[in-house]
Amino acid sequence: MSSLRKRKETHDVFSPGKLGPVTLPNRLIKAATSEGRSPEGKVTQALIDFHRGFIEGGTGMTTLAFCAISPAGFAAPGEILMIRKNIPGLKKFTQAMHEAGGLASAQLGHAGPVASKQITGSQPIAPSRFINPTSFQICRPITRDEMTKVIEQFAEAAEVAADSGFDAIELHFGHLYLVSAFFSPWINKRKDEYGGSIENRTRFAKEILLAVKERIKDRLAIVIKLSMDDGVKGSIWLDESTETARILDETGAVDAFELTMGSSVYKQMYLFRGETDIDGMAQTQKGIFRLGVKLFGRRMLGEFPYKDLYMLEAARQFQPIVKHAQLILLGGINDYAHMEQAMEEGVSFIAMGRALLREPNILNKMKQDKQGRGLCIHCNKCMFTVYATTNCVFTKEYATSSKVPV
Length: 406
Ligand SMILES: Cc1cc2nc3c(=O)[nH]c(=O)nc-3n(C[C@H](O)[C@H](O)[C@H](O)COP(=O)(O)O)c2cc1C
Fold this sequence. Notes:
binds flavin mononucleotide; alpha/beta; three-stranded mixed sheet; TIM Barrel; eight-stranded parallel barrel
């Protein structure tokens, strides 16, 4: 098997790892799993307890998600609004993670065509007029003035994160949320300098990145969650996403790319792999929409068998391209052997979503023997809990603490 990134040394999962200006106590990052514990967009005790569980369980850095840069950018109910007014609660969050011995990252983004009017109260926006084939919502094209505002909101949200004591921010440039929708020739039909070539389609992302860097300098690490392949015909694939990575990497402003795939717009199971839980999705809908999901849900969500380390082959394509930033591997990392393999491939960090929802203490469990299997079975029943309180259906205790702002 060829190496993802040839380095002089390969790292132990348990060894500390430098990420830009900060150092993680080990190589495990809790991936973003939109928590649904912030009914007023603010930090709650339930949110703190949920994340402290990962840090106490051995995870080096946890990712607070999803943090919308503006109310129009929400993707699901109960997400954080990353504005100055919410700093007191955000400070309590980072303090709790630091006291528990770990670091805190905030995932910043704007849902764009994934946002829903029922949640945001406004019509969703996209690079061009677009009908979301899952929600059937008609997105209107974002104007140039609004783009300038979004860039400013990203910079402001990053500064809010820095002022709240976060160690890192993760810019969400994936899953066909607003910024990655610009990368996609399927959604981006613009005729100006933000449409057409991949350089043009990357321009908005680059402007956001540079504005963020200019605002926060080296106060915290900058991670970009970047889609390698949307899993939708005519959208982004590796030939273009590697070019986007090259352009963003060349700025020198990125500390790490967390490489992801799939979209929240169509064929959502391409990101998750494993069981397609139609009944779970139907429960999130009412009346005629519930029937629609039962009839057409499988076609919309798609069916993709689960495979361990399913993003690794695509991630290898970024090895010769990314020269400055480190790489974070995600997707189907479930067992100690997977973590070890990722480390041997030369990635700097690994991120886990579902395996940690299932077992927040997975790293501590494996520390003693440096081996072991995760309990996650990729039933994907956690996917639809994002509409209430995100949790693994086997670990419901996390749903119990208070959702009143701290
Ligand atoms: C319940 C749930 C919620 C998620 N919410 C987010 C999110 O808010 N932002 C994001 O970038 N990815 C989100 N993801 C995707 C994960 O970060 C991760 O990319 C995906 O689960 C694949 O990693 P895994 O195989 O380790 O689970 C979510 C995943 C799950 C299961």
